[in-house]
Design goal:
Blueprint (H helix, E strand, L loop, with lengths): L3 E3 L6 H7 L5 H6 L13 E3 H15 L4 H6 L10 H6 L4 H15 L3 E8 L2 E8 L8 H19 L7 E3 L11 H7 L3 E2 L6 E5 L12 H14 L6 H12 L7 H7 L4 H10 L4 H17 L6 H7 L5 H12 L3 H8 L3 H6 L13
Parallel strand pairs: 5-6
Antiparallel strand pairs: 1-2, 3-4, 4-7, 5-7
Helix pairs in contact: 10-13, 14-15
Length: 354
């Protein structure tokens, strides 16, 4: 199934490219898009075309922070009708909950998880994709938009505790935009992408809140942006969020959806996939993301992917990629673009999972 986002996702692209001395027209046309589309923010475009456009544009310009440049120009209103539901909740916590519930309507590939750990809350953001592919620009853009949303709710005097990126740091000349956009110390080569905020900030009041307007907007959103996630996308989101805890099982997933295991399996079969295929695909993507990080030990990667032992992970990795995790890392370390583009066909059910 072709997946779409609104053309508003390209807000800031034209001006960012022109500020870098590049005419974006040819790149848009090559991606099957056009400059005229930018005047119609509600027009749907392919999410895959958008991701490829941003990565290609960053490569061409040498601007690894292109997604962050675009995020600087974003406003809540660029989320369309969903912005009315999100922006008029009474507290920052309610705003983030509304965003979490609405995000699948804004971008069906984007997953947002809120997890409280002591006095901190981790806002983890990842993409659920059909296969491994570069997403640095889309990831940076999404995190930048999330930060700007928080600033617009609680005011400029606030800042997150930290912002975490799974990719490496940009070159020093391009670092200032990171501090300007997030206003906190960034962390790179992390195991996830997201913001870390103080738990007490969830209770910060939203001075622009209007719950009556939010309820009205929710009705409009149901009409304008019907929920279009497939069962496979819902399942993959659950796998992504529960993988490291060892709870990514078909039984737990079916229970969370209020379904019998056989019912869920039949529904996935209709969509041409299975739970084991989705689990395998998710592990492939995050195995590459984790192993390209030189600070992560193979034992840590095995644990984050839900394996009971490093040996079980090593056997799965050899079956999937044709080499051990250590061999793969030796070939790809320092070459994140190559790592993201590496692919391998599913080799069946994963072994040794918890």
């Amino acid at each position: 199934m072709t997946e779409f986002v609104r053309t508003a996702s390209l807000t800031g692209y034209d001006s960012a490219m022109r500020s870098l001395g590049v005419d974006p027209g040819p790149l848009l046309r090559e991606a099957g898009l056009s400059a005229e589309l930018l005047a119609h923010p509600e027009q749907p475009i392919s999410t895959r075309a958008l991701r490829h456009l941003l990565e290609q544009s960053a490569d061409l310009t040498g601007c690894i922070t292109l997604g962050l440049r675009m995020a600087e120009e974003r406003a809540i209103s660029d989320l369309g009708v969903a912005s009315l539901v999100i922006a008029h909740q009474p507290t920052l916590g309610d705003v983030l909950n509304a965003l979490q519930e609405s995000i699948g309507r804004i971008n069906s590939n984007l997953v947002l998880q809120m997890r409280r750990i002591g006095q901190e809350v981790v806002l983890r953001q990842e993409f659920s994709l059909n296969g491994p592919e570069p997403t640095r620009q889309s990831t940076d853009l999404g995190l930048g938009v999330l930060a700007r949303l928080c600033f617009s709710i609680v005011g400029d005097g606030w800042s997150p505790l930290s912002v975490c990126f799974s990719h490496e740091a940009p070159p020093a000349p391009q670092m200032p935009i990171v501090g300007r956009l997030f206003r906190c110390d960034p962390q790179f080569d992390c195991e996830f992408n997201g913001l870390i905020i103080a738990a007490r900030d969830l209770d910060r009041p939203n001075l622009r809140a209007d719950q009556a307007l939010a309820r009205h907007a929710h009705g409009l959103m149901e009409i304008a942006l019907p929920h279009q996630r497939t069962i496979a996308q819902d399942v993959e989101q659950m796998i992504l969020l529960s993988l490291s805890s060892g709870r990514a099982t078909v039984q737990r997933c079916a229970a969370s959806m209020g379904l019998a295991v056989r019912t869920l399996q039949r529904m996935l079969d209709v969509e041409g996939t299975s739970f084991s295929d989705l689990l395998h695909r998710t592990r492939m993507r995050f195995s590459m993301q984790y192993l390209i990080n030189p600070r992560m030990r193979v034992t840590e990667v095995a644990d984050l992917l839900g394996y009971a032992s490093t040996g079980a992970f090593t056997r799965w990795h050899a079956q999937t990629f044709g080499m051990s995790p250590q061999q793969w890392r030796a070939q790809h370390i320092g070459k994140p673009g190559d790592a993201q583009r590496s692919t391998a066909p599913p080799s069946g059910n994963a072994s040794g999972a918890r």
